[in-house]
Amino acid sequence: MGIGLTKIDVIPVPHRPPSYTARVMTDGGVVETPTILLPGSTSYYPYAKMEYDRWLKIVISAAGSVGESKKEKTVWYGDVLSSGASRDLRTVLSYMLFAAFEELGRDTRKGIVSEIRVNDERLRIFTAD
């Protein structure tokens, strides 16, 4: 289990001049115009968004091969990758374990993309409630 280097994306966020609603007094009363955008250039401010790569590696070896020789027999190998705004591995560990256990023992021969939401009912096995 580990955490990778911080990836920082700088995103330009537009900042436009203010808009106004104009009130015009007439003989018939007050008329409001829709929003009027004042002329002017749009400026951009930098916004930094940080993401971290997180990974979990699970290696299951045959019981008889451990310690017997220099070469252990790997029965199953799982590599779970995640990226997001949190550096705290504890906040994503349940999701990473769940993703690994869903594929446990299967030979997928390729990477599997899985999206697990915060309110996923299947995660109840990892909660203390």
Q: Keyphrases for this structure?
A:
129 residues; mainly beta; three-stranded antiparallel β-sheet; elongated
At a glance:
This protein is mainly beta and about 130 residues long. The protein has one helix at about 95-105; strands at about 1-15, 20-25, 30-35, 45-60, 75-85. It has 1 helix and 5 strands, in the order βββββα.
Portion in helices: under 10%
Topology order in helix (H) and strand (E) letters: EEEEEH
Strand content: over 45%
Q: If you average the pLDDT, what whole number results?
A: 77
**Whole-Å distance between the termini?**
25 Å
Largest sheet: 3 strands, antiparallel
Radius of gyration from the alpha-carbon trace, in angstroms: 27 Å
Total helical segments: 1
